[in-house]
Amino acid sequence: MPTCHVYIATSLDGFIARPDGDIEWLHQWPDIGDDYGYGAFMSTVDGLIIGRGTFEKILSFGRWPYDKPVVVLSRTLDPDAVPADRADRVRILALEPQETIDMLRREGWTRAYVDGGRLIQSFLAAGLIEDLTITRIPILLGAGRPLFGALAQDIVLTHFETTAYPSGFIQSRYAIGRVL
Ligand SMILES: NC(=O)c1ccc[n+]([C@@H]2O[C@H](COP(=O)([O-])OP(=O)(O)OC[C@H]3O[C@@H](n4cnc5c(N)ncnc54)[C@H](OP(=O)(O)O)[C@@H]3O)[C@@H](O)[C@H]2O)c1
Fold it and tell me: What global pTM score does this model have?
């Protein structure tokens, strides 16, 4: 089965976007010439599974940022809403998390990048996330779209490492469960 991995940035108070989806606050920091491990992480995955909210935000950029295959999960979007020039690499599917993973296993994926707050929450609830890399940005937003939400039961994590960057970003990597 492909393993699912999270690589995401949050405000210090735990939001991945403002209530209206704005993420400009993520891009206001001085460039320290470091991609915070994003390129290395991306090189390890076969592709991305993203929620509709993340897909719609990316579309608003006007420039598609991914070379790798992307599966957009949505129960409401028209499957034909994929930009024509991306139709070979982007699919919109109305599948549950486990169904998505089963499909990707048949396609030979071994590692998937799961992105979008609500989507991550539902993959976590389904027990499908293997690890999380969370970069905390030194800003308090007060309100927004949370990375985490209600759970039916606790999820215990194992902390692997934390890196403090000169920009003030604090990046921590956790595995799901006790793995030590
Ligand atoms: N800070 C960061 O690093 C970071 C990273 C990623 C995204 N973002 C931002 O976060 C925002 C999007 O996050 P979000 O939490 O609002 O939305 P999201 O998780 O990207 O998308 C949620 C939507 O995905 C669809 N979906 C399909 N299957 C689902 C399932 N099993 N569980 C949950 N959702 C499912 C639903 O849409 P339907 O109603 O169509 O089914 C749902 O409303 C955007 O503003 C984006 O720019 C920030």
Answer: 0.97
